[in-house]
Amino acid sequence: MRARYLVLQDGSAYHGYAFGADNEAVGEVVFTTANVGYPESLTDPSYKGQILVFTSPLIGNYGVSPEQWESDSIQVNGAVIFDLTMPSHYTSIMSLNEWFRREGVPGIYRVDTRALTIKLREVGVMMGAIADSIDGAFRILRDAPRYDDIDFTRLVAPKNVISYGDDDSPCIGIIDCGVKMSIVRNLLRRGFRVVRYPCHMWKNALNDCDGILLSNGPGNPNLLTHLSDVVTDIIRDRKPTLGICLGHQVIALGIGARIQKMRYGHRAINKPVLDLIRNRVYITTHNHGYAVDPQSIKGTGFRIWAVQPDDNTVEGLMHERLPILTTQFHPESKPGPLDTTWIFDEFAKMVTNHGH
Ligand SMILES: NC(=O)CC[C@H](N)C(=O)O
């Protein structure tokens, strides 16, 4: 066992042991309370630029299997866990340790993740670094740019247009800021052709496709000024549109709403969401650190259709007249409960009805 350290911007240091690659990591330190689904979370492009702390104490139990991946590689800059367990599962092709090693991502285990989570919950998320010495970790941290100032979508958006499915089917254009593969799968399952456009090519998506999906993605939505006209054009073209997480935030910005940074965000697979229209509660998957200011929705032509009952976060927006729907939560639910996959059925209906 080789000692390794996690240090935080507030000067605190946590002792643990090394797993995965031998390099160092820097990033915004955030925690997820999901107790299953570590392969999906680790490969979620929305985590780019972040060091992910798992509050669940046993991570690695069922190993690594590519069917569970949300993209083709580990996306987190580093991981912090308590107990690194050996895998026992028939689909597992390697251990977490080996996976991190192969992909050049460092991890640290046997960290007191309870103390760390309480700190992040109370002080708020902050920058941190993982290295084999405390001094080394502080040095990296000092020189690192701040998470909120970097546009990480450039690192995770596809380089080229990618198409899936049957050419004759109606087409959904994904404005791709780092889409999770289970969103693509949910659209394919409903009979659509799916085309992923790198997010700066959003105009092509609007020209070529019957419906638009503005994807999830990493980083500060306020930096995505190159997407600011998306919403004007979607409204002008009356395009059926679904915005998920970052996509929801981009739509909110486009209608003139404000986005704020949350203290520690929502990263979990058991967050209640109250549907104000159907008067129902869903248990949902979340991964976000920014949220829409509800006051700023007034007078935009959109209404809030869902909220998070614990802290009143805006969870969904819909246009008063046009087929435009958004969710701050993740209806694809990978990992997580399947309460809200109906959102994709609703979107499919919006696209189909619009064509007639
Ligand atoms: N999962 C996402 O799309 C995250 C959106 C955004 N980066 C946030 O943290 O709020």
Automatic annotation (TrEMBL):
Pfam families: CPSase_sm_chain, GATase. Its EC number is 6.3.5.5. Residues 2-131 form the Carbamoyl-phosphate synthase small subunit N-terminal domain. The active site is at C245, H330, E332. It catalyses: L-glutamine + H2O = L-glutamate + NH4(+); hydrogencarbonate + L-glutamine + 2 ATP + H2O = carbamoyl phosphate + L-glutamate + 2 ADP + phosphate + 2 H(+). Pathway: Pyrimidine metabolism; UMP biosynthesis via de novo pathway; (S)-dihydroorotate from bicarbonate: step 1/3; Amino-acid biosynthesis; L-arginine biosynthesis; carbamoyl phosphate from bicarbonate: step 1/1. L-glutamine binds at S46, G217, G219, L246, Q249, N287, G289, Y290. Residues 1-170 are annotated as: CPSase. PROSITE patterns: GATASE_TYPE_1. GO terms for biological process: 'de novo' pyrimidine nucleobase biosynthetic process; 'de novo' UMP biosynthetic process; glutamine metabolic process; L-arginine biosynthetic process. Keywords: Amino-acid biosynthesis, Arginine biosynthesis, ATP-binding, Glutamine amidotransferase, Ligase, Nucleotide-binding, Pyrimidine biosynthesis. SMART domains: CPSase_sm_chain. It is an enzyme of class 6 (ligase). GO terms for molecular function: ATP binding; carbamoyl-phosphate synthase (glutamine-hydrolyzing) activity. Belongs to the CarA family. Small subunit of the glutamine-dependent carbamoyl phosphate synthetase (CPSase). CPSase catalyzes the formation of carbamoyl phosphate from the ammonia moiety of glutamine, carbonate, and phosphate donated by ATP, constituting the first step of 2 biosynthetic pathways, one leading to arginine and/or urea and the other to pyrimidine nucleotides. The small subunit (glutamine amidotransferase) binds and cleaves glutamine to supply the large subunit with the substrate ammonia. Composed of two chains; the small (or glutamine) chain promotes the hydrolysis of glutamine to ammonia, which is used by the large (or ammonia) chain to synthesize carbamoyl phosphate. Tetramer of heterodimers (alpha,beta)4. This is Carbamoyl phosphate synthase small chain.
